[in-house]
Design goal:
Rossmann fold, single chain, Protein-Tyrosine Phosphatase, Chain A, 6-stranded parallel beta sheet, UDP-N-acetylmuramoyl-L-alanine:D-glutamate ligase, 3 domains, alpha/beta, 434 residues, 19 strands
Length: 434
């Protein structure tokens, strides 16, 4: 029986473990940190051998295949040993793609991936297409492949996931933009980061479609240096005039999202959906009207200069906030806190270290959060007034491009009636300074 070792027990790792076991692999899952209780219960229930708080080398290095979490860089010593033994290392999206016949719409980019993925999925699903949503959003791709057979998948994919693909091949590949980010993972070399994004196209051929941003210089440069045999379609800032979208001589009004960045996202999503051949222009226009971002869940509230405000008040536990923190490429000023529910912040340490610029504690008792992160985030403030939290965030942004994310990881009852009240007050405080 072939053995697979899985590094990391988050959403992707746990999903990969479930799929691997169902396919007859001997599975060993190892997480250097603390495994979230929900994932631990899933692993135990399904009879999957796992460890936490360490990596036992002898139980990993005897595997014939390693699936690693996107959050683990290739530079860690354990990965170097694995590569030294010539054990294949792949990502969860690579592994899952081997076990589905569904056509894949893969969406990547530095910014806008989540919105574009959600909209693409919505436009297909609302028109009766048998479509799944996975990747960096929702369930892991592997878990979804295990649980249901879809005809199409919309996958939000990050550069970290794309770093470890081999045969992964989207039917429709979409790059929204490539701007500086995560350069610490790419030797501070922007071209290595860009190449990771563009790597999504490596296996695409004449039967596939590549959709790209014609205003993005890096994407254009990569396309010129590494031309594709795919059908290529572009979208651009000129598609959107602030009120309507103009795509292939069709005019789209009654748009669900506003702003130039969302104009690009909508244009890209519509092109992807029409490329499937499953949905007509008329159907797209109808489905656009019913798309809404979930209130209080990664909800864009507004933007002041380079500062984007996101309301994720519904995130009342660590797992939800962990997902939110992993949903943005820009540095994050994280507003967190409230009534602690026995939270274990250990599982957030690596993500916070990678993504968070500063923390603003919004609660009556903040010692647990401060103690958990003060060694890795020196800039931690606290307040019991959400209006002050918003003002502090503006000051901490310092004119840089950042996301101010209200994602408390705690219940709201110390300062608010419920999470809806907390989210609404946050939105009002943001609107007051726009």
């Amino acid at each position: 029986m072939e053995k697979v070792a899985i590094l990391g027990a988050g959403e992707s790792g746990t999903g990969a473990a479930l799929l691997a076991k169902s396919k007859g692999f001997q599975v060993f899952l190892s997480d250097r940190g603390t495994i979230a209780p929900a994932y631990k219960q899933t692993l135990t229930t399904n009879g999957i051998v796992f460890e936490e708080g360490k990596h036992t080398k002898e139980d990993i290095l005897d595997a014939q295949l390693v699936i690693k979490s996107p959050g683990i860089p290739d530079t860690v010593p354990l990965l170097q040993e694995i590569y030294g033994k010539e054990i294949p290392v792949i990502s969860e999206i690579e592994f899952a793609a081997r076990y589905t016949d569904a056509k894949i719409i893969a969406i990547t980019g530095t910014n806008g991936k989540t919105t574009t993925s959600l909209l693409t999925y919505h436009l297909l699903k609302e028109n009766g297409v048998n479509v799944g949503l996975a990747g960096n959003i929702g369930d892991s791709f592997a878990k979804s492949v295990l649980e249901k057979a879809y005809d199409w998948y919309v996958l939000e994919v990050s550069s970290f996931q794309l770093d470890n693909i081999q045969d992964f091949k989207p039917h429709i590949g979409l790059i929204l933009n490539i701007t500086p980010d995560h350069l610490d993972r790419y030797q501070n070399d922007m071209m290595l980061y860009a190449a990771s994004k563009y790597g999504m196209t490596r296996n695409m051929g004449t039967e596939d479609t590549f959709i790209y941003n014609e205003n993005d210089a890096l994407t254009l440069s990569l396309l010129k240096k590494n031309p594709l045999t795919t059908t290529s379609l572009s979208f651009a800032t000129k598609d959107y005039d602030g009120e309507a979208l103009y795509i292939d001589e069709e005019v789209y009004t009654e748009l669900p999202l506003r702003g130039p960045h969302n104009g690009m996202n909508m244009s890209a999503a519509i092109r992807a959906v029409l490329t499937t051949g499953e949905v007509s222009v008329v159907q797209v226009k109808e489905a656009l009207r019913s798309f809404k971002n979930t209130e209080h869940r990664l909800e864009e509230v507004g933007k002041k200069s380079k500062v984007l405000f996101i309301n994720d008040s519904k995130a009342t536990n660590v797992e939800a906030s962990l997902y939110a923190l992993q949903s943005f490429q820009q540095p994050i000023i994280w507003i967190a806190g409230g009534v602690d529910k026995g939270n274990d912040y250990g599982q957030m340490e690596e993500t916070v270290k990678q993504h968070v610029k500063a923390i603003i504690c919004l609660g009556k008792e903040n010692e647990k959060i401060k103690n958990a992160f003060q060694s890795i985030i020196p800039d931690i403030s606290e307040t019991e007034d959400i209006r002050i939290a918003v003002q502090l965030a503006i000051e901490k942004a310092g004119g840089q491009e950042v996301v101010v994310l209200l994602s408390p990881a705690c219940a709201s009852f110390d300062l608010f009636r419920n999470y809806e009240d907390r989210g609404q007050q946050f939105k009002e405080a943001v609107q007051a300074i726009l």
